[in-house]
Amino acid sequence: MTYLIDSVVRQTTILIAALATASGNRASLARVANQVFLDLVGELKQQGVGNKVIADMFGLALRTYHNKVARLSESVTFSGKSLWEAVLGHVRDKGPLTRGEVLHRFRRDDGMVVRGVLKDLVDSGLLLRSGSGDGTRYEPAREDDDDAGGRDPEAALASMVLVAINEHGPIDRDGLLQHLPVGEPVLERVLRKLADDGRLTVEEIDGELHYRCEHYVIGFNDPDGWEAAVFDHYQAMVTAICDKLRRGRAQAVPAESVGGSTYTFDVWPGHPLQDEVLQFLSALRSRARDLRERVDEYNESHAAPGDGTLHITTYVGQGVRTDNGSAEDD
Questions:
Q1: Do 171 and 235 have their domain in common?
Q2: Are 36 and 82 in a shared domain?
Q3: Is residue 277 within 8 Å of residue 319, measured between CB atoms?
Q4: pLDDT tens across 155-187, in order?
Q5: Cα angle at 56 between 51 and 58, to 5 degrees?
Q6: C-alpha radius of gyration, the chain, whole number
C-alpha cells in the first residue's frame, strides 16, 4: 500500500507541476503543502481516524501535529479563513506591519500559533522579514501573476464551479467550498454572476440556498474551459477509484459498472491499424455525445421516479508519445 500511495503522490505532483507552468505561467505553490496536509487530515477524520493515529501516520509528535493543525485551521479573528490565510491577507492588505501589530490584530487567536504562522509565511517566501523582537517588520513578497495573457481568472473559476454543481448539485455554498478551495467572497461573486446569466438555478432547501446545473458541456474551443475540463476529468477518475475502494473491490470483474481500464496500443507509420487506433478517442467521444443527447431528450419528457436515479460518469483520455518518450502533437 505504501508503494501505491507514494506512486499516486508522485503522479499528482507531476500533474501539479505541469499545471503550474502551463502556457508560460509560474503559479505560486507556497500554499499547496499546507492545503494538502489540512485536507488530508479532514478526509482521515471523516473516515473515523483519530488525532493520535493521524499524527502517527504523518510521523509527527501529537503536540506538533496539533500545533500545525491550529496554524492551518480557521482563524477566530477572521471567520471562514484559516489563520494562515488570514495573517497573510492582513499583511498583504495593511503591511508592512510589526510583529506586535500583527499579534494585536489577531489577539483573539493563540499568540504562539500566530508567531508560528508568521514564521511559516517567511519560510514559504510569501512574507519578507526585517528587524528583531516585537519590532520585527513583515511585508508581502512580490506576487507572481497566476494567469498569463490577461485572462480573467474568475472566468476559468466559473467553469469549474459549473462542473462541481453539475456533478454534485443541488449543493449549497458550504458544500461547494469542500470541492473548490476558494475564498467565500470570490465564490459568492461567481455564483451571483452565473445565476444572473442563467447558467445555474438557485433554489431554497431547508432554509438554505442550493445551486443546480442540469447540463454543462465544455466546448472544444472554449478558452476558459480547459481548467474545468482537467478538474472534471480528474474528479471523475478519483471518484470512480474511491467508489471502488469503498466497495472493497481490489480486482476487476467482467461487466462491472464501477472502475476503469487502461489499454496501450503500439503502432508505427504504415501499420494497418494506426489510423483506427488514433481515431479511437474521437469515436468514443462521438458515441458518448450521441448517447448523452438521447438520454437528455428522453429525460426532458419523462420525470425521474425519485431517489433511485443512477448518476453514471464515464471518463476517457488518450495520450500519444514516441519511443523517445516525447509527446506527439496533434
A1: yes
A2: yes
A3: no
A4: 778 888 988 898 887 899 888 887 887 777 788
A5: 95
A6: 24
Does residue 267 lie in a domain region?
yes
pLDDT of residue 148: 45
Q: What is the DSSP string of 66-120?
A: HHHHHHHSB-SSSTTSBHHHHHHHHHHHH-SEEHHHHHHHTTTS-HHHHHHHHHH
Helix-strand-coil split of the chain, %, nearest 5: 55, 10, 40
Say yes or no: 128 and 171 in one domain: no
One-letter identity of residue 161: V
Residues of the chain with pLDDT under 70: 1, 23-28, 30-31, 80, 142-153, 223-224, 249-252, 254-255, 324-330
Q: Using DSSP, state whether 233 is helix, strand or coil.
A: helix
- Single-letter code of the amino acid located at 154: E
Largest Cα separation within the chain, whole Å, is 75
Residue 202 neighbours by CB distance under 10 Å:
13
- 123, three cell numbers: 519560510
Could you list the residue range(s) of the whole structural domain that residue 161 is in? Answer: 151-252
User: How many structural domains are present in the chain?
Assistant: 4
Question: How do residues 41-74 score in pLDDT, each as one tens digit?
Answer: 988 988 889 999 999 988 889 988 888 888 777 7
Q: Taking the complete model, does pTM exceed 0.70, yes or no?
A: no
DSSP assignment, residue 324? T
Give CA–CA dist 212/162, Å, rounded: 9
Give pLDDT tens digits for 221-247: 776 677 888 888 888 888 888 888 877
164 with 203, same domain: the answer is yes
129 forms beta bridges with 138
